[in-house]
Amino acid sequence: MLGGAALAGAVALTLTAATGASAAANYSFSEGHVDVVHVGFDSTGAGAGLGLFVGNEGDPAYAEGVYAAADSQFEVTDTPALGGFVLPENPDVADANGVLFAGFSGSGDLIESGIFGYGDQISVTLEDWDFVPAAGESAGATFLVEQQSSSDIFFDGTGDVQDFTVNALDAPEAFHEHATWTFEKAGTYTFDFTAEGNGLAADLTPFTFVVG
Q: Which residues form the signal peptide (predicted)?
């Protein structure tokens, strides 16, 4: 699990152990409130910039906190009541069906640093994606990440960009939104995201969904 504190507009990230798992473990999130793409600061590279992580706010299998995307995966089951491989944007519906309430968020450090303020935008881009079919499943698949409550399509293919607006009123989070995730077929979906805003950028970061 990753944790950090604001240091001169950046978060110094350190590895710590989460409840029931070691830092080297692969965290499989399958239920509860999890912000799949959590934007924060990352000062572990050549210089301070944005980083993309996973924010666990409610999967009971793990401690609440921020996790490395490389150590994480997200499980999506076939839920007939939801119409298939679906993660709903409504928390009550997600809870009733025992599936992830999957969202997007920004760390409060983005505001506290003074680099981002009310009304600023952080753009998250799907640079590329890949699908590996499950055994017995055909190649090729589609997916859709959309906010049905606003009829806003976030992502459905390579090159899609979603702008998130910083709202200081939401501190300790810079922004926080949820969407409905729909996957066509069983298999492994890997989404390569980047993010940028106010002259800072995040390196390409893969996020893995195991569907089936």
A: 1-23
Spatial contact of 134 and 187, defined as CB atoms under 8 Å apart: yes
Distance CA 87, CA 100 (A): 6
H helical segments located in the chain: 91-97, 109-112
CA-closest candidate to residue 185, choices 202, 166, 204, 210: 210
Phi-psi region of 84 (alpha: psi -120 to 50; beta: other; left: phi over 0): left
Paired sense of beta strands 72-76 and 27-29, if any = parallel
Q: What whole-number distance in Å separates Cα of residue 11 and Cα of residue 83?
A: 40
The closest alpha carbon to 4, from 49, 44, 58, 61, belongs to: 44
pLDDT > 70: what percent of the chain?
Answer: 83
Domain count for the chain, please give it: 1
| pLDDT tens digits along 52-77 | 999 999 999 999 999 999 999 999 99
Its pTM surpasses 0.85: yes
CA distances from 26 to 18, 55, 104 (A): 11, 15, 21
In sequence order, the β-bridge partners of residue 111 are none
**What is the domain extent for residue 72?**
2-211
Residue type, 138: S
Contact 15, 44 (CB under 8 A): no
CA 91, CA 96: separation in Å to the nearest integer?
Answer: 8
DSSP state of 76: E
